[in-house]
Structures are given as C-alpha cells and as structure tokens.
C-alpha cells in the first residue's frame, strides 16, 4: 500500500476544476491530462484517502464523466480550504492542516 503524501494531494488537486461546492460536499471535474502524470497513485489510492485523513468522509470517483465527489466534515475542513487547494493558494497552510489531520496508518 502506498502512502499518499501532501505533495501528491496538491499535485492531484491541480488537475481539478470545481463543478459544485456546498459546505460538506465538493464535486470536481478532472482534467484528462492527469493520465499523463508520472505517478504511482491509483484511483484506489485516492478512494482510500478518507481512511488516512480525519475529516474526509468519502471520495467517489466517476471515471465515465471524469469527476470526483468528496464529502467532508465542514467543521474540520472549512470550505475555503478546498477552494484554496484547487486554486493553489495558501498551500503551506493546507499542508499543515493535512499533516495535522493525517491518521495513523498501520
């Protein structure tokens, strides 16, 4: 099992465009160029993020329409954190938040 690093999350998020966002639920479109990313991260790894980061409840990948829906606890992850992540703003702060919420993985 591969551990996903904060840098990987930021890299993956750079391929996302927000389609709909309400507190607790984010839907993004995924740029097809993500397939060209030289990464060992699989869809299964992405879907396992909720097991690794407190506050992320579920990640659903829809390959047919190239979208990802993330449900999260808006009290833990403020909606603006997601907006900043997708728009590559305040990445140092986001890295700190993710690292603080990372669960112990055995």
Set down the secondary structure blueprint.
Elements: H1 6-13, E1 16-22, E2 25-30, H2 43-47, E3 56-62, E4 67-72, H3 79-86, H4 91-101
Features:
106 residues, alpha+beta, 4 helices
Please sum up the structure shown.
The chain has 106 residues and is α+β, with helices and mostly antiparallel strands. The protein contains four helices and four strands; from the N terminus they run H-E-E-H-E-E-H-H.
Describe, in plain words, how this protein is organized in 3D:
There is one protein chain. The chain is an alpha+beta fold and 106 residues long. The protein is built from 4 helices and 4 strands. It has helices spanning 6-13, 43-47, 79-86, 91-101; strands spanning 16-22, 25-30, 56-62, 67-72. The protein has a 4-stranded antiparallel beta sheet. The chain starts with 5 loop residues before the first helix and ends in a 5-residue tail after the last helix. The mean pLDDT is 86.
Runs in which pLDDT lies below 50 for 5 or more consecutive residues are none
| Helix content, binned percent | 25-40%
Strand order of the largest sheet: 1-2-4-3
How does the helix and strand content classify structurally? alpha+beta
What would you call the shape? Answer: globular
Overall radius of gyration: 13 Å
Helix and strand element order: HEEHEEHH
Largest beta-sheet characterization: 4 strands, antiparallel
End-to-end span in angstroms? 10 Å
Overall pLDDT: 86
Number of strands: 4
Estimate what percentage of residues fall within beta strands. 15-25%
Number of helices: 4
């Amino acid at each position: 099992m591969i551990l996903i690093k904060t840098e990987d999350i930021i890299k993956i998020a750079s391929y996302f465009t927000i389609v709909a966002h309400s507190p607790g639920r984010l839907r993004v479109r995924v740029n097809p160029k993500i397939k060209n990313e030289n990464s060992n991260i699989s869809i299964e790894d992405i879907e396992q993020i909720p097991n690794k980061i407190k506050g992320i409840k579920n990640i659903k990948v829809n390959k047919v329409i190239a979208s990802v829906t993330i449900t999260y606890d808006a009290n833990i992850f403020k909606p603006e954190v997601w907006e900043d992540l997708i728009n590559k703003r305040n990445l140092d702060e986001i890295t700190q938040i993710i690292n603080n919420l990372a669960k112990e993985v055995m």
